[in-house]
Specification:
By secondary structure, the chain is an alpha+beta fold. The chain has one domain: Aminohydrolase, N-terminal nucleophile (Ntn) domain (Glutamine Phosphoribosylpyrophosphate, subunit 1, domain 1, 4-Layer Sandwich), CATH 3.60.20.10. Helices cover 25% and strands 31% of the residues. It contains 7 helices and 13 strands. Strand 5 and strand 6 form a beta hairpin. The longest helix has 18 residues. It starts with a strand and ends in a 9-residue tail after the last strand.
Length: 262
């Protein structure tokens, strides 16, 4: 499974979270503590918001622990809202296009988890992406499909949480129609430059780990605690949506219904 973190708050250098802490995301790329495998070396990415409308982005297929460019960028880039992700591939190619976070327009998205039996429903799930967004599909991952389906729902008027639930519902309906018994597991984060929406959900009550750390001037959502301040880190309950805007946090139940028309 992948590892990721999302930050919102007073502007900080990416280095402060991605590289400096004792269990930083770069450390987790080689020594993850709460994942199926300790190594997440199938690429990485960072995405950040600055003074421009669209986020900046840097993704690479090299392991995060061996990329000196990541360290240089993290030392120089300062942001009030950013994503970082290290990847452990689950059946799709190790290419730059498959590395997270994904960006489109104002939005960033990253994901940890897997659509069970994805290969059996991939074509039908991709067919649900509207023509207006299909050209943005450049990789082959299930994560990118969920991102574009979610954007389509947001453009259709749903809130971010509703859109994420609807996209997972599309996938779950197709899985059940195909007789797939494997679970759908999802920890994901979506941002628009002002608000982060993160979910922890699965169809079998065994979602990927996700933690929340609320500090005086910032909030971090991460797959694992990144430092030794364990009293700060709170494990999010299963089937939860957390919305972070600045240092304001709201937790709500997250439910996924079935779209039988998928």
């Amino acid at each position: 499974m992948c590892r990721f973190l999302a930050y919102s708050g007073a502007p900080v250098f990416l280095e402060d979270l991605v590289a400096a802490p004792c269990h930083s995301l770069i450390h987790q790329s080689l020594h993850a503590a709460e994942a199926k495998t300790g190594t997440n070396g199938d690429g990485f990415g960072v995405g950040w918001y600055g003074t421009r409308h669209e986020p900046g982005q840097y993704r690479e297929v090299r392991p995060a622990w061996s990329d000196e460019n990541l360290l240089s960028i993290a030392r120089q880039v300062r942001s009030h809202l950013f994503f970082a992700h290290v990847r452990a591939a689950t059946g799709t190619a190790t290419t730059r296009a498959n590395c997270h976070p994904f960006a489109h327009g104002r939005h960033l998205f990253m994901h940890n988890g897997q659509i069970g039996g994805y290969g059996a429903i991939r074509r039908r799930l991709e067919a649900l992406i509207p023509d207006s967004l299909y050209a943005a599909r450049v990789g082959t991952t299930d994560s990118e499909v969920l991102f574009l389906l979610t954007l389509a729902r947001i453009e259709g008027g749903l809130t971010a949480g509703e859109a994420l639930a609807a996209s997972l519902g599309d996938a779950l309906a197709l899985m059940r129609q195909a007789g797939i018994r494997e679970p759908l597991r999802c920890a994901a984060a979506l941002a628009d430059g002002e608000t982060i929406h993160a979910v922890r959900w699965s169809s079998d009550a065994r979602p990927p780990t996700l933690y929340l750390c609320r500090r005086e001037d910032s909030v971090i959502v991460a797959s694992e605690p990144i430092d030794a301040e364990r009293e700060c880190w709170r494990a999010l309950p299963c089937n939860t949506l957390v919305s972070v805007r600045g240092d304001t946090v709201a937790l709500t139940p997250f439910e996924v219904g079935l779209d039988e028309a998928a």
